[in-house]
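Quick note —
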Amino acid sequence: MQKPVKRGSGMGFSWYNPRLRSIVYQAGVLAAVILIIWFFATTAQQNLARLNISTGFGFLETTAGFGVIQTLIPYTEQSSYGRAFLVGLLNTLVVAVIGIVLSTLLGFVVGVARLSRNWLLAKIAAGYVELMRNIPLLLQLFFWYFAVLRPLPGPADSLEALPGVFLSNRGLILPDPVPDAGAGLFFGALAVALAAGIVLVRWARMRQKATGQLFPAWRVAGALVVVLPALAWAIGGTPFHLEYATRGDFDFSGGLRLLPEFVALVLGLTLYTAAFIGEIVRAGILSVDRGQGEAAAALGLKDSTTLRLVAIPQALRLIVPPLTSQILNLTKNSSLAVAIAYPDLVAVFAGTVLNQTGQAIEVIAITMAVYLTLSLSTSLAMNWYNARVALKER
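Predicted structure written out below.
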């Protein structure tokens, strides 16, 4: 009597074989994706040929012919589109880095204040969080730019908060530090002091884990940062001098200028993101078992010491992952700068350059690649830090 053949067995093709069936499905999806990409690519190529628009990245070497109000590198109207791209990229990075640092610091302060035993402080922090995170970021940018900074008086009637510090509708004007002969020695000593402070803090942590003894590493590191540059100043002379701005009827000459667009963007991004970070920090601290705080109090530790040495180190493993998301959001939200005319990457490259060249595919591809690279780099760095602060079982 012939035995029945099991379905899906054997080396031949059988629709009842789940492995072969999954291969067929994946091959079909891959073919569909390739077909869609081919369709869009051929359609775009035909439309570009019909509109007589050349393709490629050669336009980056063409003269830009437009100015930019804020440049961190030398740039003129005779510079190339590639140079304009670098200007916009650096402007974006400056806003992102400053916003990340300020929002993280402010967020930690707000998160701790939300848990304060001081009723007034806790309610003020709660009100700040609810106000900032429930108003759209774009509206906050409009508020800081159009309602606060633009109505300020002109240069002739500008507000002088401190000697040489002017606030007007042209921005915040500060004294410009110009390097002198002793600058190299001064900043070298500062770098050595910072490096020594980092090594000292790491040694103190390792010593504390091994022996349980505390060492005032932060105080000593702070003293190094002050004393070593001061000695370099005394030996090598003045590292820099301040160049003050001259106030005119219509504008300022000299000095260091922070554009109102820049100030509004940094304020909006910082205050908005800090509200979310504050809630992340509060939730992370609350996740630490209450017995940890009671044990620290039984040992006679102060509340501030308990927070710094017990609560926050354990809360970091829960704080860092959502904090990474907020840092990524801040970097991507900086593209809203185009709404208040700040010359970031989107405004300069994806705006002006695209309009003048018509190279939409190349410009958008480069812009997307930049934000993708920034996001992946940030995620990689934060994941590395998260692995370092994660609790490890013995």
